[in-house]
C-alpha cells in the first residue's frame, strides 16, 4: 500500500489525481489497482478529465443533490459539514481499475481519477494498492 | 467467503458493522477486504461512526434524494419499496478496504463500515472476502 | 481481462448484462470478479432483474436526481450530455462480485448486473477481470 498526499483549495473540489496514481503503481504487476480515501467527507470517482468544466459541473451538481438546508442533526462546533458526509458516500470511498497486461491502468480515453473534496480546503491522504 | 447476518429495525437504517467485518477477517493475510450485500434494497457505505447523528442524517438524506412520490412503476403486492432500489444502488452493493501489512483494515480514524437498509426491518446477509 | 461489447438503444437505459458477465468469467477460479466500464457517461450497478420495471424506475430516478436544467458548463458542440457525467459517477464505474467456491458469481436471488447508459444510443465496452 502506497500513500499519496493531496491538497485541496476549495470547500467542494474535484481534483485530477490520475498521474499521481499512475506513478504510485509504477508498473507493478497485478490484476487491478485499488484507490481508497481514509476520510469521511471526501470520496473518489472516475470521469472525464479532458474538459475541466466537467469537474466544475460535478461540484455544482453534488451541492444540489445534497442540499445545505435539509435540517441536519450532525453539528460540530465551528464546522458546518453535515452535507459533506453523504456527498462523499455518493461518490464512494474507493475506485478499482483493471490493469492491462502491460501494467498500464485500463482507463478509457476520456477517463481520469478524481479526488472529490467535500469539506476543504484540507490536506488529505489517498491509499493505492495493487491487487493480484 | 464468510457470511454475516445483520438484523435491521427500521425502514431506512444505517447500521455500523465495522467490528463484525473485522472479526470475519480475523487477521487473514491479503491486500484488501471485499464486503458485499446480496440484496437489491440494501447497500454498503463507509462514513463517520463517531457521532451516530451522521448515520441519522444519511437516512434523512437518502429519503430526500430519492423521493416516495415520483410515480414509480415497480409495484409489489403489499410492498411499497420501489424507491428502495435506487437508494441501495446509490450507496452501492460493495465496499473494498485495503489491508495494512499487520492485517488490520486500513480504515481512517473516523471511518466505520455501514450496512444501509432501505426496506427494513429485515434479516440480511453480508459477505466478507479477502483478496490477495 | 476480457472485453464485452454492449449496444444501447435509448438515451438513458439500464441493460441487464448478467449472463454476458457470467460467460466471460466462464468458471475461472478466483476470489472476485471486477466489472468495469471505460466510459465517462455510463456506469454499472447491481439491482433487481426479475421485474424489468425496476430498471425503468432507475432510468426515471437518475434523470430526476441530476436534472437537465441545472446550468451546466460542459457544452460539446452537437451534444447535450453534461448531466450524463454525474449520473454515471453516481452509479459508479465498477462493481465487484465475490466468487463462490464452485466458481459461480455470489449474486443474491434477485440481483442482476446492469450496464447503465446515460448518453445513448451507443456501442460500449465492458471489461471483466477475475481477482485472486
How would you portray this structure in words?
The structure is a homotrimer of 132-residue chains. With 132 residues, chain A is an alpha+beta fold. Chain A is 22% helix and 33% strand. Chain A contains three helices and seven strands; from the N terminus they run ββαββααβββ. Chain A has helices at residues 18-25, 53-65, 84-91; strands spanning 2-7, 13-16, 32-36, 42-48, 94-98, 111-117, 123-131. Chain A is elongated, with a radius of gyration of 15 Å. The two termini of chain A are 13 Å apart. In chain A, 54% of the residues are buried. Chains in contact: A-B, A-C, B-C. The interface between A and C is medium-sized, with 35 and 34 residues.
The main β sheet of chain A shows up as: 4 strands, antiparallel
Estimated share of beta-strand residues of chain A: 25-35%
Largest interface in this structure: A-C, 35 and 34 residues
Share of helical residues of chain A? 10-25%
Total number of strands of chain A: 7
Roughly how many Å is the radius of gyration of chain A? 15 Å
The average pLDDT score of chain A comes to 96
What's the assembly state of these chains? homotrimer
Q: Rough shape of chain A?
A: elongated
| Separate helix tally of chain A | 3
Q: What is the terminal separation of chain A in angstroms?
A: 13 Å
How does the helix and strand content of chain A classify structurally?
A: alpha+beta
